[in-house]
Amino acid sequence: MLDIKNQCSNNPNLDVAVEEIVKVIKSDNTKLVLFYVSPTKYDFSKAAQLFKNVFPECDVVGCTSAGEIGNKGLVEGHISATSFSSDKFEVSSAFLKDVKSKALLGKPALLKAAQKVGISPDNEEEAFAIMHIDGLSAAEEKVLSVFGGIFKTLPLVGGSAGDDLTFDASKNMVALNGEVSTNAAVLTFVKTKHKFFMHKEDIYRPTNHKFMVTKADVATRTVYELDGRPAAEVYAESIGVTIEDLPKHFMHHPMGRIFQDNVWITSPSSTDGKAVSFYCTVLPNTPLALLEWIDPMQEIDKSIEILKENLPDCRGIFMSNCIFRLTQFKSEGSVEKVSDKYLKLNIPICGFNTYGEQLGRQHMNQSLTFIAFGD
Predict the structure, then answer these.
(1) Which of 19, 158, 267, 329 has its CA 20 to 30 A from that of 151?
(2) How confident is the model at residue 261, as a pLDDT?
(3) pLDDT at 260
(4) Which residues are in the FIST domain (predicted)?
């Protein structure tokens, strides 16, 4: 049986907070610990070391966050940690450094970590990977490209670290076994006999406004032209607002990259009045659609039904929830209602509010990605 235990604490004393959490999550045969820390309230480096001291025999993986997810639902200013214990759960992680400029050099570390638990390009069955990455590195696609170049079908889910919306690169960190770093990523490989199920939840849908990216700079995630015209002009026109007011509408009307039947949300970050920059890489000749907000409660209900259909014996869920979703929930006063929908499943939930989400080989924004675990 897979035993998943989660606990959150907002005790202002870091040592006490970790102690409160450990009392609940410590278990025999623990193979993996995931932890998430509010970096404006706690010393992340110290927290990473404290958790590793308690769990010296297993991989301890974590990152800074923009809000935490756990037994209290969606919270802020907390530490949330989760233990995964089973004799059918083998774990090995790779720590990739300087992912902005040297992601490709992480290939040997990825292969070594995967092979340690019996995963290889020729053997990707009964396995998955979890990715944690510096959310200000703008390197998600680089790491996913390296990963996807090695593993063709291995399922992956993950999230980009946050820093409580300070956007301070020195506070945006990931950790593996007590070691912490900015500009880094941790890829955790899991070989398991337990069932699992991955899912993406969106609370936006495509409108009839469709575009083609005709000029873009991949390195800076900037789109210069849509349909041969200045991107900001086309974007504002499709919403029916002025270019000056366009940034006010970014959150409610992000763009979606269209691939076959899938929509991958791409959040705009800024505009100079002509070009538009995004939090995801947008390639030239990519079809885009203007998105609109839909009822999040209905979409959450759909996700829960899909989960129950695909994994009726669910033992717990790891979630990466975009900070923009949390911001929207807060503005509507619905954070508690959203939390209750998942807490009423009566299973452990864990994770964090992110600066980006990953599923498969895609990096996206304003989404929820999760992996659910079964027996």
Answers:
(1) 267
(2) 84
(3) 82
(4) 28-230
- Tens-digit pLDDT profile for residues 178-208: 999 999 999 999 999 999 999 999 999 999 9
The tens digit of pLDDT for each residue in 73-86 reads 999 999 999 999 99
Residue 164, C-beta contacts closer than 8 angstroms, at least 6 positions apart: 38, 39, 40, 41, 64, 65, 66, 67, 76, 171
Question: How many CA atoms lie within 13 Å of 230's alpha carbon, on the beta-carbon side?
Answer: 10
Q: What is the mean pLDDT for each group of 10 consecutive residues in the chain (375 residues)?
A: 97 99 98 99 99 98 99 98 98 98 98 98 97 98 98 98 97 98 99 98 97 98 98 98 98 94 96 98 97 96 97 97 96 95 96 98 98 96
Measured CA to CA, the distance from residue 362 to residue 263 in angstroms comes to 11
DSSP for 318-375, written as a single string: EEEEEHHHHHHHHHHT-HHHHHHHHHTT-S-EEEEEES-EEETTEEESSEEEEEEE--
Query: What's the CA gap between 337 and 186, in Å, rounded?
Result: 32
What pLDDT does residue 38 have? 99
Reported residue count of the chain is 375
Report d(CA 64, CA 80) in Å as an integer. Answer: 11
SS3 labels along 283-306:
CCCCEEEEEEECCHHHHHHHHHHH
Q: What's the DSSP call for residue 274?
A: S
Whether 140 and 356 have beta carbons less than 8 Å apart is answered as yes
- Amino acid letter at 346? N
Kindly state the tokens that stand for 269: 């970050």
Q: How many CB atoms lie under 10 A from the CB of residue 301?
A: 12
Q: What pLDDT does residue 82 have? A: 99
The bridge status of strand 316-322 relative to strand 349-354 is parallel
The first and second tokens of residue 189, run together, are 């490989």
How far apart, in whole angstroms, are the C-alpha atoms of residue 333 and residue 259?
Answer: 33
What pairing do the DSSP bridges indicate for beta strands 174-176 and 59-64? antiparallel
Spatial distance between the Cα atoms of 224 and 214, rounded to a whole number of angstroms: 8
